[in-house]
Design a protein that fits this description.
This protein is mostly helical. It is built from 4 helices and 2 strands. The chain has a two-stranded antiparallel ribbon with strand order 1-2. Strand 1 and strand 2 form a beta hairpin. The termini are far apart.
Length: 110
């Protein structure tokens, strides 16, 4: 290894040590997260696979993705509650059945 390469490797290593917190986690700047997001998009891999290969926490990656690229996460409309009143007919069927957009069905007997 050339002397210039060795000093650069030392600098990178020293920089990494300085950014590592007491619990061993790496602290990244917004610019570093931006570079990671660019690499993620260019990789064509899924979020979970990319995070695993880069040693990133999925929730931290998601937080920074939402923070730096909010246009990729459109605002959800406000949710409203509706009152559900069970029927008085108790012939053995379901009293309340709620089907969610993902196909999940919740049934409650009266």
């Amino acid at each position: 290894m050339k002397e210039a390469d060795a000093s650069q490797a030392f600098f990178i290593c020293k920089e990494w040590i300085m950014k590592t917190s007491a619990n061993g986690r790496i602290r990244r700047s917004p610019a570093e997260w931006e570079a990671l997001l660019t690499r993620f998009e260019a990789s064509g891999r899924g979020r979970e696979d990319f995070c695993r290969s880069e040693g990133l926490g999925r929730s931290t990656f998601h937080k920074w993705h939402r923070k730096l690229r909010p246009q990729e996460f459109p605002q959800q409309p406000a949710k409203e509650f509706i009152e559900v009143t069970p029927t008085t007919d108790r012939t053995g069927g379901w009293t309340v059945e709620i089907e969610l957009p993902d196909g999940t069905v919740a049934r409650v007997r009266g």
